[in-house]
Amino acid sequence: MRLFKRSRQLHGWLAVLMLAMLALAVAGCGNGSDNAAAAKSPQQGDLTLVIGAYSVAKDAMGEILPLFAADWKAKTGQSISFQQSYEASGTQARAIAGGFEADVTLLAMEGDVDKLVKAGLVDKTWRDRGQNGMVTRSVVALGTREGNPKNIHDFADLAKPGVKVLYPNPKTSGGAQWDINAIYGAGLKLSKEQKGEKDPAAAKAFLESVHANVESLDKSGRASMAAFEYGVGDVIVTYENELLARITKGVKYEVIIPKDTILIENPAAVVDKYADEHGTRQAAEALVNFLTTPQAQEVFAKYGFRPVDKRVYAEHKDRYPVPAGLFDINYLGGWDKVRSTLYSKRGIWYQVLAGIN
User: What is the pLDDT of residue 9?
Assistant: First the structure.
């Protein structure tokens, strides 16, 4: 394991303090206790839906769920209440697979939903809802301090001497996997420009050069953002929507969209086993469908997500420029290949982490 420049002990108490401060600044991102007590004093209703989502979706869902409740009431006459848990995507998926009985889940990537399919909790047809199962989009972006003092313009700049980088741990954070995918994919793009074909070895070296400047690996994207806003690091690799949402809160960020970066797609699904056991399937399916309506998509856009609804996206396209070298997960071979080549026990990411050439 790479030794970071700051001591683990110092980073430990700083992380606790930073997370506490972020909780005061934004609607918090949740912790492990959220799953055990996912429904703190829910309002009484004719029906209760349990939501298990990744932390980045929390603020938008705080506005969308009341809109859905009103829509459901108008259509069915039923009052509906919600029990909610927000965690890092990988943590949330493992919690649901381990027995947290969510009716509906929103996660950072389809691979986390696939884990629930393999666990027998989500039907394999989950992509039939929404836009191929997706309800929001974003891109991996770079956030720097006001004025961009380190003159960061692309992923390659993250490897410059003296540049301190933050991104979370892909073992716990789905967002971190998007970050690593983006950097590795940018390395593939660069190798193709230079050599005429994609070179995995060159892409790995590119990822290594960036990771050499990483200050710490936090549990989630929100934790990394808390650290950055406390003063740790020069640049953060994160979702574009996270940066835009923080800017609306008054936090000073410069948003850099790399020329070559990855399109993020975030899924939602009914957790079929639990919805059937709870008798909430109809409402759970209605909620997942509601997430792609123009009404809900406008809320997602407000919080910096790129809408999957074409009309809503068109209304906001000036806010969301398309990078010249934008690629999606298929450029890396799809999620199955990414999981086996990057994130397996002997995969590229773990070789980088362990310093194995």
Answer: 38
